[in-house]
Amino acid sequence: MTDSDDGPVADGAAPAPDGAGVAEAVPAAASGADAAGDAATPIISGRDVVKEYVTGGETVRALRGIDFRVDPGEFVAIVGPSGSGKSTLLNMLGLLDVPTSGVVELEGVDVETFDDTEQTRKRKDTIGFVFQSFHLIPTLTAVENVEVPRLLDRTPKRTREVATDLLERMGLGDRLGHYPEELSGGQKQRVAIARALVNEPRLLLADEPTGNLDRDTGDQILAEFDAITDEGVAVVTVTHDDYVAQFADRVVNLIDGTVREDAEAVTG
């Protein structure tokens, strides 16, 4: 991730002054989220979340008492400048960090009640990660890269079937045996998305997913995210690019660790 001031950032081998108003979360606007309705349990939510780090003998407050929720089938874009707390929030959503105070819940359960083993299992089974730099293993083919999150499942035949199906869905059925160096940037990102989906997560987190892509290729990746939400999977992307936010159902504007706006996206 690029927000170096936001605190610890997830490794790819796998986000205002105090008292400023915190926007209340609005009802989900995605087609999948509409079907779920306001009564649905959010995939992940937080109440009065504060995150502080001690660096150089000083306490830095990366998140300042924010509220958030992400519903099934919703596409949410978190936008804001570097140092605004985006990376910290993404780490919270991905169960890679815990709040200093406040509550984060995964499907209605306080994440701080999970022990290390359960937290790892929840990340594996519930959450998929997509990174700006792809993080593909160069010595593995496209289909082998997609299989990596399931290597410990001891179901090689089923794993190969799922990985192949995902790549075919991404339009890469003719690239199964290609190595990363033989793929374009857009193809690499689609492999990374397939890898993130191989465990059938209910939440997909994407860190600047179009940052290394041209606009046309980026459009294709954003269209993939839109299709994923139609299946009830929630997608959250962190971005500096306002263009990416146009594809989202809801935009969360994060500034100085505070939610300044949380509203339905306006598309042109």
From TrEMBL:
Gene Ontology CC terms, in alphabetical order: membrane protein complex
The alphabetized UniProt keywords are: ATP-binding, Nucleotide-binding, Transport
Q: Where is the composition biased (Low complexity)?
A: 9-21
Q: What is the superkingdom listed in this entry's lineage?
A: Archaea
Question: What would be an example GO MF term here?
Answer: transmembrane transporter activity
Stored Gene3D superfamilies: P-loop containing nucleotide triphosphate hydrolases
Q: Where is this region: Disordered?
A: 1-21
List each copy of the ABC transporter domain by range: 44-268
Question: What stretch or stretches form a coiled coil here?
Answer: none
InterPro entries for the chain: AAA+_ATPase, ABC_transporter-like_ATP-bd, ABC_transporter-like_CS, ABC_transpr_LolD-like, MacB-like_ATP-bd, P-loop_NTPase
**One Pfam family cited in the UniProt record for this chain:** ABC_tran
Q: Kindly provide the name given to this protein in its UniProt entry.
A: ABC transporter ATP-binding protein
